Amino acid sequence: MSDKLPPHSPSRRRFVSAAAAAVAAGSLSQLAFAETNQAITEVVPATGSDKTAIRALRVHVPESQLVDLRRRIKATRWPDRETVTDNSQGVPLAMIQELARHWSTDYDWRKCEAKLNSLPNFVTEIDGLDIHFIHVRSKHENAMPLVVTHGWPGSVIEQFKIIGPLTNPTAYGARASDAFHLVIPSLPGYGFSGKPTTTGWGPERTARAWVVLMKRLGYEKFAAQGGDLGGIVCNVMGKQAPPELLGIHVNFPATLPPEIVKALQAGDPPPANLSADEKHAYEQLSSAAMKRRAYALEMGTRPQTLTGLSDSPVGLASWLLDHGDGYEQPAAALTSAVFGHPVNGESAGDLTRNDVLDDITLYWLTNTGISAARFYWESHFNFLAAADVSVPAAISVFPRENYQAPRSWTERAYHNLIYYNRLDKGGHFAAWEQPQLFTEEVRAGLRPLRT
User: Fold this and answer.
1) Helix H or strand E encompassing 314
2) Going from the N-terminus, what domains does the chain have, and what CATH number goes with each?
3) Catalytic choice (130, 178, 228, 350)
4) At what angle do helices 353-366 and 63-74 cross, to 10 degrees?
5) Do the beta carbons of residue 409 and residue 386 sit within 8 Å?
6) Distances 428 to 250, 297, 334, 341, 382 between C-alpha atoms, Å
7) Dihedral over Cα of 200, 205, 206, 210: its sign
8) Distance between CA atoms of 180 and 450, rounded to whole angstroms?
9) I need a labelling partner for 47 at 20 to 30 A (CA). Which of 156, 226, 293, 314 fits?
10) What domain of life does the UniProt record list for this protein's source (predicted)?
11) Candidate list 282, 295, 376, 419, residue with the active-site label
């Protein structure tokens, strides 16, 4: 029997039709893939071959990418519900499903895009890598130049609410003498900054790049601020102590004395000679080490394994949400923001569900889940070990931070401590959660440098 089909048989027509459909589907699939990888920014080209040129950047995400995002969210295959009634197994199913529901139906990226484009965005090449930054100059005379660095799982979006109060303090009831010129860069591999294609872009190289950036913008003297990874970069800048650096303000301080680091690594109970504040900090750190640091271990050792962060928006969202404060993981403010009301009596402060989704969506659209994770792989020291910084340093301790740094430890780690304050509200995402308190802390902490 021949295996060839007659030229006009129904079977042959069905075969040809199916083959054509398969080819068409393949073409459409390739087209969709190409569209979802279109550039989402427009950058003014440099004139000539000047790699140090500062180029304006504008954000515009093709609609096809937003359609694809919603399609992927709706196609999520969900896991079983956790077998506990708390968050001890990770991001609760109800939390991520509520976020996904809002993300796929009610969330509007264009509002975030408009906010981004209302700010002066730029790109410049430093040490072979494009660095994105927002640069807002104050109208006030004698404003202090300040570089503000975000953390993980954050981005420049974390800083939106503090830009106005810091650059234009008189519009917010503060003094003109507290004004700042703000430079807010995206860390290497984050947001609209370039993704390193070789190793070496860790906190040390980033700290040096920020000095180049500030000098390139014409600032001969400046201060630095940061929380989370941004605090780590600030600490490194302080340790490198470039002559241009006036001082630093950190809301995620590195204060652990060597003997505390050693005891925590051994899993020992709190040493008997600790004060009440020191014992509380030790217990927070011990609990975090045992229950809330799996994400950091994976990103610090095997970031490339996290392929799902590039393939599944809900997988990416769940990974980014799984960041704790000093008491819970996900952080209480994140949980309350996602549900839109206080959870377990904890307020989200000024943090909203759309704020959280703006940040997550930026990671998705820029496909930076893994490139951002590599910053942990590039970091080769204990983030919380005593910073050993001698430049002037201001420290703000928020009550729901990963740990409340005791003043005794802080004074040992920062040898020229010009400001130390413990707040009664706010947590790990302080600029997002409590922007008014945060800006007041930055002003007060860096005010001694103005004299």
Assistant:
1) helix 313-321
2) 63-450 (3.40.50.1820)
3) 228
4) 110
5) yes
6) 12, 19, 10, 19, 18
7) negative
8) 11
9) 156
10) Bacteria
11) 376
| Tokens (6 digits) for 11 | 């079977």
Range list of β-strands (E), 297-356: none
Provide the pLDDT for residue 34.
Answer: 34
Q: Answer whether 404's CB lies under 8 Å from 255's CB.
A: no
Residues paired with residue 123 on neighbouring β-strands, in sequence order: 55, 132
Cβ pair 369, 295 in contact under 8 A: no
Whole-Å CA distances, 4 to 8, 9, 10, 17, 20: 12, 11, 13, 16, 18
Q: Is 130 among the catalytic positions?
A: no
SS3 state of residue 57:
strand
Going across the sheet that includes 222-226, the strands are 41-43, 55-59, 121-126, 129-136, 180-185, 144-149, 222-226, 245-250, 393-397, 417-422
> Residues 236, 240, 241, 245: what is their CA dihedral angle, to the nearest 10 degrees?
-60
Can 108 be counted among the known catalytic residues? no
pLDDT score of 38: 57
Report the chain (451 residues): mean pLDDT per 10 consecutive residues.
37 37 36 49 81 93 97 98 95 97 98 98 97 98 97 97 98 97 98 97 98 98 97 98 98 97 94 96 92 92 97 98 90 94 91 97 98 97 96 97 96 98 95 97 98 78
**Tokens read off for 271:** 């040493």
**Strand pairing class (393-397; 417-422):** parallel
Q: Please provide the DSSP assignment of 124-161 as one string.
A: EEETTEEEEEEEE--SSTTPEEEEEE--TT--GGGGHH
- The answer to whether 102 is a known catalytic residue is no
Residue recorded with tokens 């080490």: 289
d(CA 445, CA 422): 12
Structure tokens at 197: 């294609």
Distance separating alpha carbons of residues 279 and 43, to the nearest angstrom: 51
Pair 73, 314: CB distance under 8 Å: yes
DSSP alpha helices (H): ranges in 322-417?
332-339, 353-366, 369-377, 407-413
